[in-house]
Design brief:
about 220 residues, alpha/beta, Rossmann fold, 5-stranded parallel sheet, 4-stranded mixed sheet, 9 helices
């Protein structure tokens, strides 16, 4: 069995859940509504849920007519359809931290994926290094987490600081939040890649989905 369905414009990987535990996720930018519908139908036929990332609300309103029960999280720009829930984990908590309020949309994308996969999630938003006392006020919660996702734009320093305080894996997510020399997230990405604390791994700019998925693998 080849494990995929060839639609001509796309080869839908229907065997991915057996290999990886999560169905193929549809990245929406660059795809037409018709392409998303055709890919989505194949995923829904063979999997427990459907996830659409980087999806604008205008397009969601068209797609929900095709996929009954499709739900949308506006701040995360993510839609999902769950046919059968994954059993929630009894232990282990993923902590979502943002440096600023402007980083929350990326955090909400990670939050959605984590919850779909059955993880316990806590949020700690707007605790960046510009007011570091806000972070230390929650040090107990931070040290109890099983995995920490740190989401930051600007100079992206929060991940290094957090990793130096805990024995927990830290997943750093640079965001495109920042002024001109931020270069749409490149400055935060480079800071996180050059992090001196050894407990940090880095995903791509604004990749809340990737961080949430990886955190779920660790938490399990």
């Amino acid at each position: 069995m080849k494990g995929f369905i060839d639609l001509g414009f796309a080869k839908v990987d229907v065997a991915r859940p057996a290999r990886c535990g999560l169905p193929e996720v549809i990245y929406c930018p660059g795809k037409t509504p018709d392409q998303i519908k055709k890919i989505g139908r194949q995923i829904v036929k063979s999997n427990k849920f459907l996830v659409l990332t980087k999806l604008e609300k205008k397009l969601y309103l068209k797609l929900k007519k095709t996929f009954a029960g499709l739900k949308y999280i506006p701040q995360a720009h993510l839609a999902y359809l769950v046919k059968k829930k994954i059993a929630p984990l009894k232990k282990g908590t993923v902590l979502l931290m943002t440096a600023g309020t402007s980083d929350i949309p990326v955090a909400e994308e990670a939050d959605a994926i984590l919850k779909i996969l059955g993880n316990n999630v806590l949020r700690l938003y707007d605790v960046g290094v510009a007011g570091v006392h806000r972070l230390f006020d929650h040090i107990g919660i931070i040290r109890k987490a099983s995995v920490i996702i740190v989401i930051a734009g600007m100079e992206g320093a929060l991940a290094s600081l957090v990793s130096g305080l805990v024995k927990t894996p830290v997943i750093a997510v640079p965001t495109s939040c920042g002024y001109g020399a931020n270069f749409e997230g490149l400055s935060a990405l480079l800071t996180m890649l050059n992090c001196c604390a050894p407990g940090v791994v880095v995903v791509n700019i604004d990749n809340g989905f990737g961080a949430g998925y990886f955190a779920s693998l660790i938490n399990r």
